[in-house]
Write a structure and sequence with these properties.
Layout lengths: L10 H11 L41 E6 L14 H10 L4 E3 L6 E3 L7 E4 L2 E5 L14 H12 L4 H4 L3 E8 L2 E6 L7 H5 L11 H6 L7 E6 L6 E6 L13 E6 L3 H9 L5 E3 L6 H6 L3 E6 L3 E6 L9 H9 L3 H8 L4 E3 L22 H10 L5 E8 L7 H9 L3 E8 L1 H5 L16 E6 L8 H9 L3 H4 L8 H14 L4 H18 L2 E3 L1 E9 L4 E2 L15 E2 L7
């Protein structure tokens, strides 16, 4: 027994429907009708492999091409938080359940149906029949158990899966879960987090070229800036979203200009993170540019142990002093919404926080005076990506209320290099305030997951914000645990609401706004493509077409 440690369209419409419809139940499994997979190029080592190409119908392109905006170094699906490999993993691996990234509904993946409740804290999941990995080896419940055990031991996913006390395989097609809390409406969504791979894969294979049972297989992997990830169709896939062409190629281009030029020159069919400053140029060239409201946000994180930031009034004052609407208008071209809670108001589970940080310099000055702070000087560590443009404006707003900020730009690795280990007692972490982006909605959008990401008992609260030592943290942790013990969303929501209020009042780490995700693509070249709100590109069900009307 293992004890773990701590339509595809319209994201907005989908989340609104979930909010209106109440809890996701375990009574059924939302699954699209399977599409009969077409044949794929033959595997020379497999005498029984089909010989016809996947893209047999007229007008279908041989290769789907895209440009992605984030690099990565490790395709290992265990505990991954890499934006590029999370997205790639949606195509290469399957979970028991698949989180539809447009609606955030949990649909059946490897599971044949919804979990069957055995007792209050025990569930069984039956696997769909005749599923094999891309190498032809059978996928059994032992592979699922191994994947959950390995992910449960990982630093990141362990916290998300801590409600599972044991997972076992009564037979080859059954997986049994023992829980310490029912999890109510979010059980299937959390089970969707784990991607399944063969138990036989070594650590080296997982880190270099892992295989799964999804519609695509890795062919070559170079996810460094300027590199390329190539995929081939998995002709053994039996799920609902088979590959629609022979190959897929993703160019890894961190630079906005290079990525945009690739699309304009038609070297790729789609690109993620289309820059606002070139949106008109993209549209003028004939490409489609769409902004999808999501969770992606810039946050401020405070050193809650270091005076004067250990005083909540100082943290609140620095938020009241920022003209967020001006940031949105100037740097986001209006494609964002000021935060009124941890969650945006178009997410299910949203609750308008009791404390909302509208622009109020006078209130900021008053709070600083009450805290006995005069002429405060601080260092603002800012990520050198898209949020770096916000930092000077934030510093100017703080200057207006008597706060001097020195802006220091750092890449992500350097930004958190000395903020990822819990300090010795009596030792302060070497920072004042951090400005960085974040988007845990890649993993899901339920309240428990989002709260747990930044405010759980993990690296964020113990080795970064240092909020875990406060009474408010303990109170929120108890509320979150109580919510997990409830079996219905109606019982969970009031408890989550109290968590949102505590987070908004304490602000150890807090969003400034929730931005829309911009994606650009050639409509004539991608049939049935819809952009998602989270980081990454999702091409499940999308067919690449030869451009019927070239520009």
């Amino acid at each position: 027994m293992l004890n773990f440690p701590l339509t595809r369209r319209a994201f907005v419409a989908g989340t609104a429907a979930l909010a209106a419809g109440g809890a996701l139940t375990l009574a059924g499994c939302s699954v699209e009708q399977p599409i009969e997979p077409g044949p794929a190029p033959a595997d020379p080592a497999d005498g029984n492999a089909p010989t016809e190409p996947v893209a047999a119908q007229s007008g279908v392109a041989r290769t789907l091409t895209a440009a992605v905006a984030y690099e990565g170094s490790d395709p290992n699906p265990i505990g991954t938080s890499s934006g590029v490999f999370l997205a790639a993993g949606w195509h290469v691996f399957e979970g028991l359940y698949e989180l539809n990234m447009h609606t955030y509904r949990a649909e059946c993946g490897l599971a044949a149906d919804a979990p069957v409740q055995i007792d209050d804290l025990e569930y069984e999941v039956t696997l769909r029949e005749d599923t094999v990995f891309s190498d032809g080896s059978p996928l059994t419940s032992a592979d699922v158990v191994n994947a959950f055990e390995r992910n449960g031991e990982s630093d990141l996913y362990g916290a998300f899966l801590s409600f599972i006390t044991a997972v076992s395989a009564p037979d080859e097609r059954t997986v049994r879960f023992k829980l310490n809390a029912p999890m109510g409406s979010v059980l299937q969504e959390r089970l969707a987090l784990v991607r399944v791979f063969p138990t036989t894969l070594t650590d080296e294979q997982l880190a270099t070229k892992p295989i799964g049972s999804g519609p695509w297989c890795y062919e070559t992997i170079n996810a460094a800036d300027g590199g390329r990830i190539s995929f081939t169709a998995n002709h053994r896939y039996t799920g609902p979203w088979p590959a629609t062409c022979e190959r897929m190629e993703w160019s890894v281009l961190l630079d906005d200009t290079r990525r945009t030029d690739e699309l304009i020159d038609k070297d790729v069919m789609a690109m993620e993170a289309a820059p606002v400053v070139r949106a008109e140029e993209l549209a003028g060239a004939g490409a489609t540019v769409e902004w999808v409201p999501g969770f992606n946000l810039p946050f401020l994180m405070f050193n809650c142990e270091k005076p004067p930031f250990d005083d909540v009034r100082v943290r609140q004052a620095l938020l009241y002093a920022i003209d967020v609407d001006s940031l949105i208008g100037t740097y986001m071209a209006g494609h964002a919404r000021a935060a009124t809670s941890l969650l945006p108001d178009y997410f299910r589970h949203y609750h308008r926080a009791a404390t909302v940080y509208s622009y109020d310099p006078e209130k900021a000055r008053k709070l600083l005076a009450e805290a006995g702070v005069d002429e405060l000087a601080l260092t603002l560590r800012a990520n050198d990506n898209w949020v770096s443009t916000l930092a000077p404006a934030i510093a100017e707003d703080w200057k207006a209320v008597g706060v001097t900020a020195e802006v220091v730009l750092l890449d992500t690795t350097a930004l958190f290099a000395d903020l990822s280990t819990e300090p010795e007692p009596g030792t302060l972490l070497p920072f004042d305030v951090v400005l960085s982006p974040g988007d845990p909605s890649c993993f899901g959008n339920d309240a428990d997951l989002i709260i747990s990401w930044w405010y759980g008992d993990n690296v964020w609260t113990r080795a970064r914000s240092r909020w875990a030592t406060t009474p408010a943290f303990a109170e929120m942790a108890e509320l979150l645990a109580e919510a997990r013990s409830k079996t219905s969303e109606d019982e969970q929501q009031p408890l989550w609401n109290q968590c949102f209020d505590i987070i908004a009042a304490e602000v150890p780490l807090y969003p400034l706004f929730h931005r829309e995700t911009a994606t650009a693509w050639w409509t004539a070249q991608l049939d049935d493509y819809d952009p998602i709100s989270a980081t990454g590109l999702n091409f499940l069900g999308t067919t690449p077409m030869r451009d019927a009307d070239p520009i």
